[in-house]
Amino acid sequence: MTTRIIAVLALLYAPRSGQETRELLSEKLRETAERGREAREQLLSRGRELLDEAGGYVERQKAAVEERKERFAAAVEAGRQAYREEKAKEKV
């Protein structure tokens, strides 16, 4: 940032006509605005990529939780079935 300030001060005190200085300052402002727009686009693009990655991660975790839930439910049912079978053996 300080180099920009030095550049602006150098432009202001440079031996150029007012018109040349204004044109040069205008050009530098356009360049800076363009760099700002480019940086903004890069940040937005990266933000979208990160959001997509996060969404994929969340979906994978949901699927993993669902799978564990199903395995747990199957194990509980197997335990219930084993209990019923043992109870039936006791009655015989």
Could you provide a short overview of the structure?
By secondary structure, this protein is an all-alpha fold.
Written overview of the protein:
The chain is mainly α. The chain contains two helices and no strands. The termini are far apart. The protein has helices at residues 2-13, 18-91. It has one domain. The mean pLDDT is 88.
Indicate the topology:
Blueprint: H1 2-13, H2 18-91
Descriptive keywords:
about 90 residues; mainly alpha
Question: Are there runs of 5+ residues with pLDDT below 50, and where?
Answer: none
The largest sheet, given as strand count, sense and whether it forms a barrel, is: none
Helicity, in percent? over 70%
Look at the structure and give the mean pLDDT.
88
- DSSP strand count: 0
Order of helices and strands: HH
Distance between the termini: 90 Å
